[in-house]
């Protein structure tokens, strides 16, 4: 893709780790179109069966590696090493979190709900980012770490029923800031993109199409977030060389969904 941004992205290798239930791996397609090569990581059965992965591109631009986000640091480190060897380097790590799929009161959540949510949305991205950053500390090397999160973790993004997921997202936002602060001296940019809610998110599953459209009309953008189209340009900027100065920040892409207002009454 022509232009300074396209030139900055061309040749970069992206490690895309996704535990998202919706459209995590689809984020690789616009990056490949901009000249990047992408290594997708996750459960091998999912990588082989997911249409979105198989549609990303040719073998010259796409690699696959099995990575168990619940496997612990040693297992994750080995998986990142295998991913590194596919193209001989990795410039960018993108970790896509899960959507808030368990809608419950804080009093109804089980201990297993908490453990699973914190493992895949906080512990695992920390471990993947940690082992990636250790490899990026080499002199003359720049790298980027980007967490794809949700507005449930923002102070202005509270919604009923997602207390555990929101707590994990808030923790991941803080992790992005702290890692960005401490890894800048190694030339590593760390940030998060908090996306808005999508029509396909479980939070809206119990609503009728008419209700969902009615809620959307009350938002500034008058529509729900698309989990790829509405964040792909922001991601491209942040992982390019132009995005390095934006480190240690959380960027919001929600079409104004989370603006301070009587949101719970107006939307849901």
From TrEMBL:
Q: List the SUPFAM superfamilies hit by this protein, alphabetically.
A: NAD(P)-binding Rossmann-fold domains
Q: Which InterPro entries match?
A: NAD(P)-bd_dom_sf, SDR_fam
Return any one Pfam family short name. adh_short_C2
Domain of life from the UniProt record: Eukaryota
Task: Name the PANTHER family for this protein.
Answer: BETA-KETOACYL-ACP REDUCTASE-LIKE PROTEIN-RELATED, F28J7.36 PROTEIN
Listed name of the protein: Uncharacterized protein
The species this protein was found in:
Physcomitrium patens (Spreading-leaved earth moss)
């Amino acid at each position: 893709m022509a232009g300074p941004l396209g030139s900055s992205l061309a040749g970069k290798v992206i490690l895309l780790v996704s535990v998202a239930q919706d459209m995590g791996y689809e984020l690789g397609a616009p990056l490949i179109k901009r000249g990047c090569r992408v290594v997708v990581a996750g459960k091998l059965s999912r990588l082989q069966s997911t249409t979105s992965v198989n549609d990303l591109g040719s073998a010259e631009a796409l690699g696959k590696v099995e990575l168990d986000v619940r496997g612990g640091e040693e297992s994750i480190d080995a998986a990142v090493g295998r991913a590194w060897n596919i193209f001989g380097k990795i410039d960018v790590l993108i970790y896509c979190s899960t959507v808030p799929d368990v809608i419950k009161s804080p009093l109804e959540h089980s201990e297993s709900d908490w453990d699973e949510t914190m493992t895949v949305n906080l512990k695992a991205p920390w471990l993947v980012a940690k082992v990636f950053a250790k490899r990026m500390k080499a002199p003359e090397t720049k790298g980027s770490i980007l967490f794809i999160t949700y507005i449930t973790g923002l102070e202005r993004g509270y919604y009923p029923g997602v207390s555990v997921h929101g707590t994990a997202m808030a923790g991941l936002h803080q992790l992005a800031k702290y890692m960005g602060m401490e890894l800048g001296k190694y030339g590593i940019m760390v940030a998060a993109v908090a996306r808005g809610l999508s029509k396909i998110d479980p939070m809206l599953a119990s609503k009728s199409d008419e209700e969902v459209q009615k809620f959307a009309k009350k938002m500034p953008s008058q529509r729900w977030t698309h989990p790829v189209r509405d964040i792909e340009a922001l991601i491209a900027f942040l992982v390019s060389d132009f995005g390095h100065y934006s480190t240690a920040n959380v960027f919001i892409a929600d079409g104004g969904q989370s603006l301070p207002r009587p949101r719970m009454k107006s939307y849901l």
